[in-house]
Amino acid sequence: MVATIFPLRITKACVKRRGVQLIGPVDLDLGENGLTIVMGPNGSGKTSLLRLMHGLERPATGTVHWATPDTDARMHQAYVFQTPTMMRRSVTDCIAYALTVMGVSRADARRGAQDYAKRVGLGHVLDRPAMVLSGGEKQKLALARALIRQPQILFLDEPCANLDGRATRDIETILNEVRAQGTRIVMATHDIGQAQRLADDVLFMLNGVVHEQGAAVPFFATPQTAEAKAFLGGQIVE
Amino acid sequence: MDGPFLIAIGLIASGDPALTEIIALSLKVTLTAVSIGCLVGLPLGAGLALARFPGRGVIVVAFNALMGLPPVVAGLLVYLMLSRSGPLGDLALLFTPTAMVIAQTILILPIVISLTRSVVEDLWAEYREQLRSLGAGRLRSVPTLLWDGRVSLVTGILAGFGRASAEVGAVLIVGGNIAGHTRTMTTAITLETSRGSLGLAVALGIILLLITLSLNAAAWGLAQSARGRLG
Predict the structure, then answer these.
(1) Does B148 contact A at CB distance below 8 Å?
(2) I need a surface site. Which of A184, B154, B201, B230 has the fewest CB within 10 A?
(3) pLDDT at A160
(4) Domains, chain A, ordered by start
(5) Which domains are seen in chain B, by residue range?
(6) Residue A31 near residue A49, CB atoms below 8 Å
(7) A93 to chain B: nearest residue by CA?
(8) Which of A81, A88, A137 should be substituted to probe chain B, the one whose Cβ sees the most B Cβ atoms within 10 Å?
(9) Distance CA B151, CA B155 (A)
(10) Per-residue exposure over A148-168, b if at least 16 CB sit within 10 Å of its own CB, e if not
(11) B133 close contact with A: CB closer than 8 A
(12) What span, in angstroms and rounded, lies between the C-alpha atoms of A105 and B89?
């Protein structure tokens, strides 16, 4: 039985880069169930918040605590970047790398990679160079590479930005399956329609802080702040 | 000019023993130097790409500059080290193929290190966040980056091979151009030309050109095939 890494507790955390505060102070508790959508206009701090949770950013002030030590917690997380990195390898080897880096043998990793590639709909391009995939296929590869680690929590940063409707639907279908299997998901998006389709709860970011948060249904029906209301109404919020 | 060319073709066609011996020694020395250069230069170049420490910039500039190190200077340095009065004189390596390997390795290393650093640095900028997210630290990333940069790295290694196989100054100084012992293609060409024995010189020149051409063709073919397979 693998110990749970939840809850995640963020206390008065700020992220700074070259002296400029990107987000904060942020106070947040994250339990082990559901799909949280992080919403907000460009530059509101969605990506920085995800990076802070995943450990790609260290808090300049405040703390980020998982229930298990950081090194253990990191092993049970996966992150899908907005622009996924395609290694100079085949689709199978690109996905398998996520396991070989954990010490799994190459043969076992490749077998697992092929299973996950098929699961996300890449069964027909297993030996194709990852670099030549379409945008949608690259996102699916990134998703397979994240899922093969069987993470307890999956972070996704605008995974459907620049994808067409069909590719977006495919990604959302996979995410719904993953959520149903018990993986915690935190996803940044500025697509309100997608947020409404997927979210169990919402974090609305504005100017680097969590401006409003709560369950998805009441948030979309009756947002509590004027800024969230304006954002959902399609107005430009700064 | 028909004379030397005909003699050269005759020597090559007949598999002249002296010619074969010179070619074999040249390839042995250069391939050994390239192998050592790769064993040392690839990890060192990758390490330099990923490491951040005070004075790193100076080291990067120094290796870049050393890519243009004149072979005679390299030869002179090795000569001073290996001569009887030098710090390594007791090893009695001067005028041996080993001394020639050392000199060629010194010429190759800056090329392999600098080109590896450049290739790995570019790849690291692209892969860094993804590798961190997957839990690969800098040390674990080195073989990954070297493997994924292999197509570009072959070019650097070939450049090193080209520099070593074509140079004459360093191997002449530390090898002494001793027949049957340290005579390579380039030193033999120099000697035979000065003697007016152009047949052997032209034959060696043709072989040297063919080796360089074949290696570059092989590298080009490999790169094309890799691009097809890796995108």
Answers:
(1) yes
(2) B154
(3) 92
(4) 8-85+152-209 (3.40.50.300)
(5) 21-197 (1.10.3720.10)
(6) no
(7) B230
(8) A88
(9) 7
(10) bbebbbbbbbbbbeebeeebb
(11) yes
(12) 48
Instruction: Tell me what ipTM this predicted complex has.
Output: 0.92
Of the candidates A142, A147, A136, the one whose C-alpha atom is nearest the C-alpha of residue A169 is A136
Q: Is pLDDT above 90 for A64?
A: yes
Q: How far is B48 from chain A (nearest CA, A)?
A: 21
Angle subtended by helix axes B138-148 and B97-133, to nearest 10: 110
Rounded to two decimals, the pTM is 0.88
Please list every residue in chain A whose beta carbon sits closer than 8 Å to the beta carbon of residue B144.
Answer: 87, 97, 101
Distance CA B26, CA B55 (A): 37
Grade residue A34 by pLDDT with cuts at 50, 70 and 90.
very high
SS3 state of residue A186: strand
Q: Is B122 on the interface with A (CB under 8 A)?
A: no
Res A23: pLDDT? 96
Give me the phi and psi of B37, to 5 degrees please.
Answer: -60, -40
* H or E element, residue B165: helix B150-166
Residue B156: what pLDDT? 80
Asked if A75 and B135 come within 8 Å (Cβ–Cβ), the reply is: yes
Structure tokens at B173: 């100084």
List the single best residue of B128, B130, B153, B154 to mutate versus A (max A Cβ within 10 A).
Answer: B130
Q: Does B39 touch chain A (CB under 8 A)?
A: no
A80 phi and psi angles, rounded to 5 deg? -110, 120
Better pLDDT: A170 or B11: A170
End-to-end CA distance of chain A: 46
Q: Which amino acid is at B181?
A: H
A97–B144 C-beta distance less than 8 A: yes
User: Taking the alpha carbons of B188, B191, B195, B198 in that order, is the dihedral positive or negative?
Assistant: positive
Q: Distance (Å) from the C-alpha of residue B153 to the closest C-alpha of chain A? A: 13
Contact check, Cβ <8 Å, A85/B136: no
